[in-house]
Design brief:
single chain; Hyaluronidase domain-like; 6 helices; 183 residues
Amino acid sequence: MSRSGYGKGCPTRDSLTAPPRRTLGERASRRHHGRVEGTPERRDRDAEGRARQARPRDALGRPLPYDAAGVEPVPEAALPPQETIDAARGLLEAGRPFSAHEVIEARWKACPVEERELWQGLAQICVGLTHSARGNDVGAVRLVDRGIARLDEYVRSDGPLYGLDPVAIATCARARVRPASGG
């Protein structure tokens, strides 16, 4: 291995040319506006400047052209726990796991700290189901496994489950991302 730690035949850190540094104003401008100068401003923002998604999406959450018809967007505000569960369940049954994730994510961001593992785990499972529906089997399995691990951790905390059955959720999610192999 070379002295640089990059391995034989790799350039040393000192031999790499660093890009020119931007001035503080250039860095702040890019950070604030989220775009490179000369590119069109297409990021949707609310009155406070927070990013909002006004672009239409397909049932799996993929962005569509602005003039396309997409699925009905879900509310960005957090719903109460049982309404969140009911809305997410309906979206999953309608084949919209990405939208179910968005509903759950809003709850996760607004929930008490003690419940974060529950809502984050459910959101990760929904993202895993989204990856599965999009054909990303490896990502699907990883996210579902992470979500189930969070649910397991939450169950050990004795927090409220709002009528959810974590074992049934895990079984169903795993079956959807790891279909039985036909032989």
